[in-house]
Design goal:
Elements lengths: L7 E5 L1 H4 L3 H10 L9 H11 L6 E8 L2 E11 L4 E4 L12 E2 L4 H14 L7 E8 L3 H7 L7 E10 L2 E3 L4 H7 L2 H15 L4 E5 L2 H18 L1 H6 L2 H16 L3 E8 L2 E11 L2 E9 L8 H15 L4 E3 L6 H5 L6 E9 L1
Parallel strand pairs: 4-6, 12-13
Antiparallel strand pairs: 1-2, 2-3, 3-4, 3-5, 6-14, 7-14, 8-13, 9-10, 10-11, 11-12
Amino acid sequence: MNPIVKINCIELTWIESKEKVLEWDNLLIESNFPHPFSSFTFYNSWVETFVDDLTQIKMLFFYNNHKLVGLAPIFVDQDNKRVFILGDKDLFDYRDIIYISEFYEEIYIELLSYLKSQKWYQNHTVIMHSIPESSELLNLLNADKLTDFADVEIIQEDVTPIFKINDGWDDYLLALSKKQRHEIRRKLRKFESQDFHFKLINDNQDLSKFLLDFYLLFINSREDKKQFLTEQRKTFFNKMLFAFAEKNELKILSYYDGNILISACIVIEYANTYFLYNSAYSLDYNSFSVGLVSKIVALKQSIENNKRAFNFLRGNERYKYDLGGEDIKLFEIKLLIK
């Protein structure tokens, strides 16, 4: 911790924070791990869908010499004496405060000091879900830098496999095992022998019709997906996807058999990375591996478009590792401030 660094914490309401969107966006791009789940676009869609009482949201902006260097969007559950990073585990693959690495220690200490100083705070538990292993918070905890401020509990929550892109498509195939390379080429040949046609959807004009087809595909693929896709979550998806399309940060790679949607990958393109947010495929076309092939095509496009990485996001499904994914661990961290 640098004693010369002075961090100033400013609390804003959710409505007031909307005036800081440009600063917010710039901070996220400069942060140690920029991803769409911490963007205003994603948060705003979630808040508009799921939060009835906006007074439960505290937006903490951290400044150093008038420059925004950190942001903690927190949600206060007074009834159960809990404080969360805004969002929920079902829809957010990553949740952490946003910060520039140079100031992470000062920002976390200022955050805990702020919480302790609030009149409403009475032995609340700070619960932080989906913290990626790259988070500086874990470094602070492992170095016992926060032991004077809080008691800590850490458990591994999940993984998000990611493929870091360094070379072209041919080099990517050569780096795979002989068996896996053969399987990919075989599946692509079989799929391409059919009269399926590809459609890239990346604007609002085609999105409405696509989503109607996609939701049917999604709920028909597995019973748990049918249970997951409530009307409220569907409302969130609509808001969020249209908002990212408006910013030219949405890519939907879809395949059709005539007019029938048979597979689709929904990708958010952010910080020079493809984030595979959702996908679905028709069980009627299982013999053509339509689900896997659409993901292979999405990965191939990310390589050919010179992206930095392809993030498969939450879950340890076997295909992610077969395609070269390597785990980013996610942790749940509980802090009981002293």
